[in-house]
Specification:
Layout: H1 2-7, E1 10-11, H2 12-18, H3 25-37, E2 41-46, E3 49-54, H4 58-73, H5 78-86, H6 95-111
Antiparallel strand pairs: 1-3, 2-3
Helix pairs in contact: 2-3
Length: 113
């Protein structure tokens, strides 16, 4: 999806070329078909090629993916997800990132979320 969002539209070949450690071309096409069945992308015919375009804006797709991630790996708990992010070995969060998180938490408390 990142490649399609970055380009605005892309063929399966362009998606395949843009993936590091890409799976097979047929696997990319299969994934694009699944994304189309889920309503996340649509295709337009351009001669013999399908050109895929996003049907959901990036922000909405990000929210949906994050909800699924929380439900699947963190029992729906944002706290567990944040704890996992803070606990990633070898990953240091900068003071600015930690300050930003602190500001967001204070704002959420203020708004009663």
């Amino acid at each position: 999806m990142d490649i399609i969002y970055q380009r605005g539209r892309a063929t399966a070949a362009e998606v395949h070329e843009g993936l590091p450690d890409a799976p097979s071309y047929s696997a990319v096409r299969a994934l694009l078909r699944i994304l189309e069945e889920k309503g996340v992308v649509a295709h337009e015919q351009d001669g013999p090629r399908y050109v895929y375009v996003p049907t959901v804006n990036r922000s909405a797709a990000r929210q949906s993916a994050l909800r699924n991630l929380l439900r699947t790996f963190f029992d729906g708990s944002p706290t567990q997800a944040v704890a996992a992010l803070l606990d990633l070995s070898g990953q240091q969060m900068s003071s600015a990132e930690l300050d930003s998180l602190e500001t967001m938490i204070k704002q959420a408390k203020k708004e009663g979320r």
